[in-house]
Structure formats: C-alpha cells, structure tokens
Amino acid sequence: MTYDITLVRIRPGLTLQETLDRLNADFDPEAELPLLRLTDAQRAEWGRILDRVSREIGSVESEEYLYSLTLETVGPPGRVQLDYCGDTASIEVAYRHSGPAALAVMERAYRIARIVEEESGLTGHDFEVDQPTLTGDPVIAADRLSGVSDWAQHHLS
C-alpha cells in the first residue's frame, strides 16, 4: 500500500476532477494496458524531469517499461517513485515513514511533483489530504503519511 499523488494533463475546457472522471470512465480493468507511446514533446518533458530531479534531489534510477517511464530516488530519506505516461503521472511513497522521516520523504515527493508540473504542464493533486501539490503543504501530507504508517505498524505487524 502506498501514499499516492496524481498528476494529469487537464483537458481543454475541463477541471481537474472532470478530466480525472473522463480518464476513469475510459478505464477498463479487463483490458490490456495500452503500450507507452510518447510524443517527441513528451519524451523531451521526461528528459527535463529526469535531469532536474537528478540535479536538484540527487541520485535516481530510471527505467522504461512497456507502459510507463519510471524513476526512483536512491538513498535517504527514502524511496519515492515517479511513473510518467505522458498525459498522466503518479508518485508513490510507501507507508513506512513516520515522524521526521515522513516529513523528509514527503518534502522530496512534493518537490518531484512540482518539478513534473513545471517541466510538463501536468497538474498535481494529493487526494490523500486534498491539496494541490504546487501550493500544498508537505507537512500536512507528512502528518497523514506518519499517521497511517504508525497505525499500520501497530495493527498489521
């Protein structure tokens, strides 16, 4: 189970929620996922995202899969994973961080989200705490991550 942040290219004339509703309506859980087919502009976005995250945050590992491009941060304060599909992206953080560690990893996750927004035009939203990633407070996200992580440690171990 992971803490997820959603990034999406808002369709013209629609709100973030309307865009997500359309994407969800088009999703068929029985169908094979579509293969990744990025435009040249989207490949360029990914290159800028990868360069900036590496430069501003530190070491990352990057892979290209059939359905997405992925980067994972390496080293402390913890792993943050970004999956990029061109018009959508997601950031995942494992529910295993609490206290100051939760704040450090969520600051990293929000920084990555903001880089993605700046380089791609995607709009990020953290539905876990219902705030946009561009202007949202990582402290609020860290409190949520920490609370769920603590609960899981006490009830699922």
Please give a handful of descriptors for the protein shown:
157 residues, alpha+beta, 7-stranded antiparallel sheet, 4 helices, 22% strand
Tell me what you see in this structure.
With 157 residues, the protein is an alpha+beta fold. The protein has four helices and seven strands. The protein has helices at residues 16-26, 40-56, 100-120, 138-156; strands at residues 2-8, 60-64, 69-73, 80-84, 88-94, 123-126, 131-132. The chain has a seven-stranded antiparallel beta sheet with strand order 2-3-4-5-1-6-7, sandwiched between helices. The model has no long low-confidence stretch (mean pLDDT 93).
N-to-C terminal Cα separation, in Å?
14 Å
Strand order in the sheet with the most strands = 2-3-4-5-1-6-7
General form: globular
| Largest sheet properties | 7 strands, antiparallel
Number of separate helices? 4
Proportion of β residues? 15-25%
Q: Give the radius of gyration.
A: 16 Å
Helix and strand string, N-terminal first?
EHHEEEEHEEH
Low-confidence stretches: none
The oligomeric state is single chain
